[in-house]
Specification:
Blueprint lengths: L1 H26 L22 H12 L18 H10 L1 H7 L3 H4 L5 H15 L6
């Protein structure tokens, strides 16, 4: 009977070691880091308005796939209210940083990285309709 208890404890120890080792291997997986070229010093992230800065970015880069008719990923960016709701919820930035990162900005495109920073600054101001 004592021998079975030792074998059971040994099995538990082996499974525990394998479990910890498996977690270690999984945690060592390299995360992909997307490097964005720094925008030029002319990137204004202070004097941003919805009408002159944000709306043109959304129209150019997003509205073709995220409107009243086509709502890829369930995101509708038609009109200020929809854009604000997406911005405040975090959905807009999460989409840009995630699945749309390759499309929205590239390593060579300083204008797009500036636009991304402007979107973030506008959201941090509370996404006003100014």
């Amino acid at each position: 009977m004592k021998k079975n208890k030792i074998n059971g404890n040994m099995k538990l120890l082996i499974f525990s070691i394998l479990g910890v080792f498996s977690l270690f291997i999984i945690s060592c997986e390299k995360d992909e880091i997307l490097k964005v070229q720094q925008p030029t010093s002319s990137c204004d992230t202070v004097n941003i308005t919805y009408k002159t800065t944000i709306e043109p970015i959304i129209i150019e880069k997003c509205k073709g796939c995220h409107n009243n008719t086509t709502q890829r990923g369930g995101i509708n960016l038609e009109g200020y209210e929809n854009i604000k709701a997406s911005a405040i919820s975090g959905e807009l930035i999460n989409s840009i940083e995630g699945s749309m990162s390759g499309y929205f900005y590239t390593l060579k495109d300083t204008n797009s990285s500036c636009e991304f920073l402007q979107l973030k600054a506008w959201i941090n101001k509370g996404a006003p309709n100014d």
